[in-house]
Prior knowledge:
- The chain is mostly helical.
- It has nine helices and two strands.
Amino acid sequence: MATIYWEPTQRNENMFRFRDVFRDTVVAYSDHIRKPGRTLPISLNALQVLKALFSVMDGKTGRCDPCLDTIAARSKLSRRTVVRQLEVLRREKIIDWVRRTVKTGNAPGEGPKRQQTSNAYFIDLAKMPIEIMRTLRQKLGDKLREKTRSLEGSGPVPSRMASKAAQLLKNVTGVLSTSAGRERAERRHLAAGTAMDRIAHMYRGDPDAARQHAEMLGLSSASCASANLALYPVLRTDERKD
């Protein structure tokens, strides 16, 4: 059990609490999934094997790699029964394991280069039945340390809805930025353009109104000045006092 799911303490109090809660939860789960008229899917022998694994586990490191003979001696079961019950626990996703090997020192062609010594047993909360996880969270609370697996540099797993929302926000921001940029460019063009450019901009879609405005501005210089003041009023600070 290489991954630690409890807060290590000097006397392993949290590990013992995790062990007891986990064992009781597995018993309740086995009864929960049992089909009517059938035996328990996780038998008492399987629970004995689980108890034996916890008894040889290192509470500070989570290491648990006993040989089959040790498990058999601790559980008081035969080696064959231990192998069978380990497969049951693995099938029900209660525990899992990887092989531990050592180098044999054999030369090439003289035999296998590595030899299995034992299995390294562990609990994978990510694959555990939801009924067990729910109970562990309720009974252990912040004492339960759930670790998630992730590749280096991969970051958190993206959410589909979050990705869609981010893409939508990006699209809206892009449209607004483009519109704002287009509007600023249009204002600069009008400021540097002629009077006819500004009239055409004012009466877009109404050429008759644009023509009438242009004619009004072209009647005379006085009329033109008057029309410009009406359309583009300016503050006057030199008004004469009566």
